[in-house]
Amino acid sequence: MVRQFETLYSAPKTLQATFLERYTDNGRVTRADAGTAYFRRPGKMRWEYHSPDDSLFLVDGKSAWFYVPADHTVTRVPAKQSSDWRTPLALLVGGSKLSRVCSAVYLATTEAPQKSGSVVLFCAVKGAEGGKAHAPDREAAAETRGDAAFLEIDSTTGILNRVLIKQPGGAAIEFKFANWQFDQPLPESLFHFAPSPGTAIVNGELPSSESRVNP
User: Fold this and answer.
1) What pLDDT sits at residue 211?
2) SS3 sequence of the chain
3) What total of structural domains would you count in the chain?
């Protein structure tokens, strides 16, 4: 499954998909956002949010930007210093090697697939402890630490359907993808942020997931 996924996503220079992003707290949905994500090698991505509010998350290869048009403010941080939860998905534009993020990959034992014909893989995030523990134990331990990552992949095509990141205290962030398009002619300008007149640029850490859950 890992080879199939990596083979599918390693060849294209650009990727595009629609997404649904959900935050849950002990199974209760606290926020849901939707939009379109674009990826371009090497190391660039653009997340356009259209529902319920317009916003933009963009990585141009050097900086990560978070822009809310209604606030006329953009936050900028060096991409390598960003702890944003979308950053691990940069593996899609970094060669698609799961080994860039995961020290090991296992069939998940605590998370079931949501789509028929899919399998769920547990990613033992690099730098985390417990990678050699028994499957249920290492997944539970990862959830406690906040580095439990699961990938739902179509077992026939290798298509990435879902990414789930479980956090301590029962919180979780989920990305569902659809309508993947490969090697679309995406212009380079799509991955550069040009502030409109009157936009304030703030250098610092990007808004946390908690601030997006409770805006």
Assistant:
1) 42
2) CHHHHHHHHHCCCEEEEEEEEEEEECCEEEEEEEEEEEEECCCEEEEEEEECCCEEEEECCCEEEEEEHHHCEEEEEEHHHCCCCCHHHHHHHCCCCHHHCEEEEEECCCCCCCCCCEEEEEEEECCCCCCCCCHHHHHHHHHHHCCEEEEEEECCCCCEEEEEEECHHHEEEEEEEEEEEECCCCCHHHHCCCCCCCCEEEECCCCCHHHHHCC
3) 1
| 70: pLDDT strictly greater than 80 | yes
Domain span at residue 71 reads 2-205
pLDDT for 84 equals 56
23 assigned to some structural domain: yes
CATH code of residue 42: 2.50.20.10
More confident site: 100 or 139: 100
